[in-house]
Amino acid sequence: MWKEDFTHYLKDRQKIAKNLKKMMKSILRQKLVMAEAKDLMLFGMQLYKNTIHLYCLTMPIIGFYCFVEVMSYPIPTNPATYPKDLPRYVKNLFKTLKLVIHGADVLQRYMTSFEYYSSDETISDDNSPLSPPFISPQKTGKRKGISKTSTTDSNIDNKRKQTSSML
């Protein structure tokens, strides 16, 4: 049972890392300003066996991501030890809040300090660590509520109107 729980813990930690990386890439695609990207910090939190784990993802060097556990602390569960454990727990909660607020402030400064990336511009740098945004192809085929026969009938009606107005 313990091994299954630990494996689940590791898989969840890996999911947190992957999702933080996707979020970081999404943020970087919107701005494309690498000079300030090294200051960005994204946080993820995991609860496992009455312990809170706080993770941070940064990009200290362009293209390299650093995922680390910033802090971890137990959640008090024994009422007999509340007088001793609660002050430390509250102190750790405030440290967590302070870190997350700092990360949010850095992110907000990063997003507002430069002009937004215009989607009309193209990037010709093939060495960029960022992949270009995915543009989905135009949908083809039937649309709901419109059939090909009704489109053909309306085309015939339009041609009749054009020829009658010419006469």
Please tell me about this protein's structure.
The protein has about 170 residues and is an alpha+beta fold. It has 3 helices and 3 strands. Strands 1-2-3 form a 3-stranded antiparallel β-sheet, sandwiched between helices.
Topology overview:
Elements (H helix, E strand, L loop, with lengths): L1 H30 L10 E7 L2 E11 L2 E11 L7 H32 L34 H19 L1
Antiparallel strand pairs: 1-2, 2-3
How far is the N terminus from the C terminus? 87 Å
Q: State the helical fraction.
A: 40-55%
Given helix and strand content, the structural type is: alpha+beta
Largest β sheet strand count, sense and barrel closure: 3 strands, antiparallel
**In percent terms, what proportion of residues is strand?**
15-25%
Tell me briefly what this model is.
The chain is α+β, with helices and mostly antiparallel strands. 49% of the residues lie in helices and 17% in strands.
Can you tag this structure with a few keywords?
167 residues, alpha+beta, 3 helices, 3 strands, 49% helix
